[in-house]
Amino acid sequence: MTSDLALEFARTIRAREKAVGYWAVLDAPVATERIGRLGYDYVALDAQHGLLGYSGVLAGLMAVDAGHTAVGMVRVEENSPVAIGKALDAGAVGVIVPLVDTAEDAAAAVAAAKYPPLGNRSYGPMRSALRIGPVPAEANAATLVFAMIETPDGLANVAEICATEGLDGIYVGPSDLTIAVGGKYPGDPDVQEAFGEALATVAAAAAAAGVAAGIHTAAGEVAAQRLSQGYTFATVASDLTHLEQIAKSHLAAATAGR
C-alpha cells in the first residue's frame, strides 16, 4: 500500500501548491535524518554531483523516511532507465532528471519512471515496495518526474517539455542556466537580466502547462523570493554548504579578539 505521505506530496506538487525542500550531497545518513525531521516537505539527494553512491542514496532515503515528516527525492546521474529505476527502487518518491533538452528527452524520463502501460520501468521494487507500491498502478500514481531546465536547448524548448504527457514538473538548475544564457560562471552579474528573463520564461511555461515549477536556491530568502515569482517548490542550499558556512562563522566569532 502506498504511504499517505507519498500520496499527499504527489497531490501537493500536482496541484501546484507550495513546497520547500532541502538538498543533500553528503553520504551522512544521521545528518540527513535530522534534516528530514525539521519540517521540510522533501529532502533531495544529489546522485549526479553529490558525494554519495548508490549505497549512500539508499541509506539517505531510509534516513529521510525514518522521520515520517518529509519524503525523499533523488537527482539521478543521468536520463537513463537504469539510473531512474534504481533511485525509485530504493524508495525515492520523485526523480529530478538532469540535462533535458527536448520533449523527447522528457518523455524518455517519464517512460523510465512509470510501469506499463504508462512506461517501461522494470519491476523490482526492492525497497520502494515498502513505501510506494508494490502495485504498479499505485506506484505510478505516487511517483513524480521532474525535468531539469539548465541548457540552451532546454530553455528554448521549455514549453514543449512542460507539455510532455506524464511529466509532473520542471526544475531549474540555476548554475547551469546562468551559463546557458551566456554567463561566465554561476551568479555572473553580467547576465543577471537575461537570467531573470529565463526564470520568468520557465515559470510561465510551467503555469501554462499546469505543471509544477521547481528551482534550486542558495538560501531560504532566495527560496521565498522564487516562490513569490511563480515557482511552486524550491530547494534550499545543501548540507555541505551549510556545514562550511556555520563552521566559518563560529571560527570568526572564536578568533575575533585575537
Q: Which descriptors would you attach to this protein?
A:
single chain; 258 residues; alpha/beta; TIM Barrel; eight-stranded parallel beta barrel; 12 helices
Radius of gyration (CA) equals 18 Å
The CATH class name reads: Alpha Beta
Going by CATH, the homologous superfamily would be: Phosphoenolpyruvate-binding domains
The domain tally reads 1
**Biggest sheet record:** 8 strands, parallel, barrel
Mean pLDDT: 97
Helix content: 40-55%
* Strand arrangement across the biggest beta sheet: 1-2-3-4-5-6-7-8
What is the ordering of alpha helices and beta strands?
HEHEHEHEHHEHHEHHEHEH
Total DSSP E strands: 8
Poorly predicted spans: none
**End-to-end separation:** 60 Å
Name the structural class. alpha/beta
The CATH level-2 architecture is identified as: Alpha-Beta Barrel
Question: Strand share of the residues?
Answer: 15-25%
Count of alpha/pi helices: 12
Shape: globular
The name CATH uses for the topology is TIM Barrel
Note down, in words, how this protein is organized.
This protein has 258 residues and is of the alpha/beta class. It has one domain (4-254): TIM Barrel (Alpha-Beta Barrel), CATH 3.20.20.60. Helices cover 47% and strands 16% of the residues. It has twelve helices and eight strands. It has helices at residues 4-14, 29-36, 54-67, 81-89, 103-113, 136-142, 152-156, 158-162, 174-180, 192-209, 220-228, 239-254; strands at residues 19-24, 42-46, 71-75, 94-97, 144-149, 169-172, 212-217, 233-236. The protein has an eight-stranded parallel barrel, surrounded by eight helices. α4 (81-89) links the parallel β3 and β4. The longest helix has 18 residues, at 192-209. The radius of gyration is 18 Å and the shape is globular. It starts with a helix and ends with a helix. The mean pLDDT is 97.
